[in-house]
Amino acid sequence: MKKGLLFISALLASTIAFSQVGLEGIVVEKYYVSDAADSTDAGDNGAMYPLHLGSVTYRVYANLLPGYKVIQLFGSPQHTMNVNTTTAFYNDPNYGFKVYQGTSVNNTKKNTTLIDSYFTIGGVANGLCGVLKTEDTDGTIGNNQGILANNDALAGLPITGIDGVDGLMPGTPILPNVLGITTELDIFDQSVGNDFTTNGAAIAALGGMEGVTPSNHVLLGQFTTDGVFSFRLNLQLSTPVAGESQIFVADSALTGEFVDSTLIYTSLPPVIDLVEANGVVSDVDFSAYPNPCDNQLTIVQSNNQVDKVSMRLMDLTGRVVMNDVYWSSKRTIDTTNLPSGFYTVMLERKGQIHSVKFVKK
């Protein structure tokens, strides 16, 4: 740890004030939303934490001015670095990694590697760097198992299929150096966990890394979770002037540092739509029946779990008909006096929101 701190301090000490501020902000892209086929594949391959239906893959980019490069992500005694979720991060069990390490394109196409959780400074696969899907002009590498095929509008453009764009473009990725970190990154390598925090470590790209498209977005990490995702980051950039750099922190800037509010982020809870089949709407966490219903709708937590659930029943106009909080594995809603029509029940549990759509006869 001491060696890592000395190295980080040496990098930070090289900072010189520059007339232009090189960070235009942090951009968070919803890259993908997992479906049932993805979840099944993850389970079949032995994922330690399930790939729950509706899990969101977030990509985090630094948006830089031309000529600027990312040197490192860091945490210091003055500036905590943190990446967190309210549940756990999904890790691909076959070819996933904690920090980008040069996985082949062929292995990147296998199973759920493309939605693994990890840190990086630009790289995703051998010869390929991460770009915003809206800037991807060469289509998709696809998927060998035919999964990752969900076209959920919440995640924008699909990442596989005929019209897919996978957010990968040719480039020369740098293998980052991990400094001052021991087991903290294990939550991105088949260890169930929800929090990465450091006050004395860095993920560095010696020489710096810039984006491979004119907008100069550099991918800093990709994180898949079924919970609420948040981060607090600090960055060092090199400027177009040789030997000069700039430090950007989440808050409480010291002399010569810049505060950028976009270095702090918290997502909205993802909404998971339960799927209807044979009169039952369900996902891996809840089921509800009958649909359509007459006098009552029964909602059951999977595996008879007893967790706190906040429930909101709304009609087709969005008007809230009923609010409730309960602690039980089963909840029955009396629908006798509801007018016939379409309704939605929103169920919030452990930072997730599940959407149940049903018809009252």
Describe the protein in words:
The chain has two domains: 2-266, no CATH class; 271-360, Immunoglobulin-like (Sandwich), CATH 2.60.40. The radius of gyration is 22 Å and the shape is elongated. The protein has a six-stranded mixed sheet with strand order 9-11-3-14-15-16. The model has no long low-confidence stretch (mean pLDDT 91). The chain has 361 residues and is mainly beta. A hairpin with a 6-residue loop joins β21 and β22. The protein has helices spanning 2-13, 36-44, 105-108, and strands at 23-33, 56-64, 69-75, 81-85, 118-119, 123-125, 128-130, 168-170, 177-179, 195-198, 201-209, 217-225, 229-232, 235-238, 245-249, 257-259, 264-266, 271-273, 275-277, 280-282, 286-289, 296-301, 308-315, 320-327, 330-334, 341-349, 352-360.
